[in-house]
Amino acid sequence: MALLLTAASALLSPPLPPSRAGSPRASATHDLLRADMDAAVAARGALERRLLGTPRPLGPPPGLGFSSARGKAEAAELRRAGVVRLDGVLTPDCADELAAFVDAERERAEAEVSAGVPRQSRFEDLVLVSRRCDLLLPLRGAAVRALDQLLGRNSRLAPLFREVMGERGVLNELACLFSEPGAAQQPLHPDTPYQKTPPLYAVFVALQDVSVDMGPTFYLPETHTKEAHEAFYGGSLEAGRRLCGEGTLKSNTPVNEEFLRGRVVQHALLKKGDCAVYNQCVLHCGSANLSPHVRRQFYISMYNPKVQVRAKRSMRPAFRNKLTLKDISAELKALKGATSRPGGAFELLDAADRAEADSYLS
Ligand SMILES: O=C(O)CCC(=O)C(=O)O
């Protein structure tokens, strides 16, 4: 997920090169700077944690069940709160298959990077990198099966996306977050600056049951608004625009203690296959993983092509700006439950991704 507001990002100007590039000494310097930056970022996260009250579980809103017609109730809640929980968007079997798939892909991606594929083609930077990983996924196998359950014919998410941004919404991210034992709490952040028309929505899907000590995502509902962004950024939306997204990440802005003390905070104690859908302007963060377990969170996001979008994206280069919701629905329909077909949209994109990697390896 996008790299955003951090306390110590000023330490990293210009951005650090990929750690595997260059000499062992450059790599050691990179690792030292990264560790310093993470320590400062974690300190901000810890301060915010002390200011926030006890989290309440993010639950499906009352009255919202499988009977919800064509995503309307979910969309209404998403518009109101900036985040909505939907249970059972993946079957447990599909979530298990995907968990094994992402683990194998992570190893494969590390091997590819060691062999010369640019790190940014396989991994994205996260807020607080230490003990976290943001893996960009290929468009095949279990990833396609998961897309079918998330956005296929009888899904609940496709109607929700149609409601909030229409068929022309574009797939912006396809990735998996790993939070490992010992991962510290991230600072709160939106993924993109405030805009009147929401530019981006993300879906975080749990690939295992998430307990409190595994560091669930925290959401601050109703913070996708202009007023909340102004307060969070010390009275200035302009500061939010500068600090959020891909810009230089300087954060000498003080934490707005009063604002945080008064907020409701919800944690996403999702069961395997459940998800949280959020407007990416809403404030959120990964909390600390104090458990001995890895938390895997598969995710996709969609952007609204009618508005200007500013955020980094966790998606392999070959897939960027290529698939609208309409295209995805059509391809899933043509696949009829399979994960690839000759000449199909996903297969062609996957081939382009492989060709990109091969161009570095040959
Ligand atoms: O770890 C999580 O659940 C949230 C991660 C996140 O928001 C981010 O990395 O930007």
Automatic annotation (TrEMBL):
<feature type="signal peptide">
    <location>
        <begin position="1"/>
        <end position="21"/>
    </location>
</feature>
<protein>
    <recommendedName>
        <fullName>Phytanoyl-CoA dioxygenase</fullName>
    </recommendedName>
</protein>
<dbReference type="InterPro" id="IPR051961">
    <property type="entry name" value="Fungal_Metabolite_Diox"/>
</dbReference>
<dbReference type="Pfam" id="PF05721">
    <property type="entry name" value="PhyH"/>
</dbReference>
<keyword id="KW-0732">Signal</keyword>
<dbReference type="InterPro" id="IPR008775">
    <property type="entry name" value="Phytyl_CoA_dOase-like"/>
</dbReference>
